[in-house]
C-alpha cells in the first residue's frame, strides 16, 4: 500500500530543480546526516517546503560520524547553497539520530551541524521525524536507512518504544557487489537504477526479509495496526509486500521515501 503526500512531491521537486518556494515568517531547517546521503530541508511556519538540497556522502556509518571534517564540509556547502537561493542566512537547525545510538554519537552529530554554522535547537529520532510528515498517531514507523533499520512505535501520537539494528541499504549494496563481482560504487548505482529493479530485487530480497524479521522481533510485545516504512532503502516497489508477508501486519510505504525523514526533521525544528 502507498500513502501519497503532496508535501513530499513538492519537496522532491525543490531538491531536483534547486528552486525555492515563496514564504513568510520564520524558516525551519532540518539536517539529515544519512549513511548514503546528507539532506538539508527548509520549511515555513506552516511546515510547507521552501527549499532543499541533497549530497551523496559516506561520512556516517550506522549512526556514527566516521569523517567529522568531511561531514562539516558537506553540511556547510548545502547551507551556503540554500542561503544563496533564499537570499537569507539560516542560523538554527534540527538534526536527527537513529533510535538507540549512544550519547557520544548524538553529540558528534549535533557537533557536525554546529560546526557547519547552525545553532542546534532540537534533536529528534529519525522514525519520529517521519511520523510527523505522515501524520501517524498509532502504528510503527520503520526507517530503513543506509546503515540501520530503526523503529518507533506510536500510540495516541506519543512514542512508546524505539529501537535500532545495523542492517540497511548498505547491506543490499554489499550483496549486489558480491553477486556481480563489482565495486561498491557500481553496486550502489545498480541498486538505484529503477530499470534494473526486476533483475536485482530477488538478489536483495533476503536482506529485506532480514530487516522484516528484525522489526517482527521489535513488535512482539506490541499490538500495532500498521507499519509505515520510510527511507531510501525501501524504494523498491515490492518492499512493503515482503514486510507484510513476514509481519502479518498491513505495511504502508509513502511516496518519496528517501525524503520523508529529512522533511520531518525540519518540521520538528523548534525550541
Shape by Cα distribution? globular
What structural category do the secondary elements indicate? Answer: alpha/beta
Helix amount: 40-55%
Give a count of the beta strands, DSSP E runs of length 2 or more: 13
Low-pLDDT residue spans: none
Question: Which percent band covers the strand fraction?
Answer: 25-35%
Biggest sheet strand order reads: 1-13-12-9-10-11
List SSEs in N-to-C order: EHEEEEEHEHEHEEEHHHEHEH
Mean pLDDT: 90
Number of helices: 9
Radius of gyration: 18 Å
Tell me about the biggest sheet?
Answer: 6 strands, mixed
Q: How far from one another are the termini?
A: 35 Å
List the helices and strands and how they pair.
Elements: E1 2-3, H1 6-17, E2 28-33, E3 37-43, E4 49-56, E5 60-61, E6 64-65, H2 68-86, E7 92-97, H3 103-115, E8 119-125, H4 126-134, E9 139-144, E10 149-155, E11 158-165, H5 169-180, H6 184-192, H7 197-219, E12 227-230, H8 239-247, E13 251-254, H9 260-267
Parallel strand pairs: 1-13, 2-7, 7-8, 9-12, 12-13
Antiparallel strand pairs: 2-3, 3-4, 5-6, 9-10, 10-11
Amino acid at each position: 500500500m502507498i500513502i501519497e503526500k503532496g508535501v513530499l512531491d513538492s519537496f522532491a521537486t525543490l531538491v531536483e530543480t534547486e528552486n525555492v518556494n515563496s514564504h513568510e515568517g520564520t524558516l525551519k531547517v532540518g539536517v539529515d546526516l544519512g549513511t548514503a546521503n546528507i539532506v538539508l530541508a527548509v520549511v515555513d511556519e506552516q511546515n510547507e517546503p521552501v527549499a532543499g538540497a541533497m549530497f551523496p556522502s559516506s561520512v556516517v556509518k550506522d549512526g556514527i560520524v566516521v569523517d567529522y571534517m568531511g561531514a562539516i564540509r558537506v553540511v556547510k556547502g548545502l547551507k551556503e547553497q540554500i542561503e544563496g537561493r533564499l537570499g537569507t542566512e539560516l542560523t538554527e537547525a534540527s538534526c536527527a539520530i537513529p533510535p538507540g545510538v549512544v550519547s557520544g554519537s548524538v553529540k558528534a552529530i549535533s557537533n557536525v551541524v554546529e560546526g557547519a554554522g547552525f545553532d542546534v535547537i532540537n534533536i529528534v529520532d529519525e522514525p519520529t521525524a517521519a511520523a510527523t510528515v505522515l501524520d501517524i498517531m498509532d502504528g510503527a514507523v520503520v526507517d530503513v536507512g543506509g546503515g540501520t533499520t530503526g523503529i518507533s512505535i506510536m500510540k495516541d501520537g506519543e512514542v512508546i518504544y524505539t529501537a535500532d539494528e545495523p542492517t540497511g541499504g548498505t547491506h543490499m549494496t554489499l550483496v549486489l557487489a558480491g553477486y556481480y563481482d563489482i565495486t561498491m560504487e557500481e553496486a550502489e548505482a545498480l541498486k538505484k537504477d529503477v530499470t534494473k529493479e526486476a533483475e536485482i530485487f530477488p538478489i536483495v530480497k533476503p536482506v529485506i526479509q532480514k530487516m522484516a524479521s528484525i522489526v517482527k522481533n521489535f513488535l512482539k510485545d506490541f499490538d500495532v495496526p500498521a507499519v509505515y516504512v520510510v527511507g531510501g532503502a525501501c524504494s523498491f516497489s515490492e518492499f512493503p509486500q515482503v514486510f507484510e508477508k513476514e509481519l502479518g501486519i498491513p505495511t504502508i510505504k509513502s511516496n518519496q521515501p528517501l525524503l520523508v525523514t529529512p522533511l520531518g526533521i525540519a518540521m520538528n525544528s523548534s525550541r
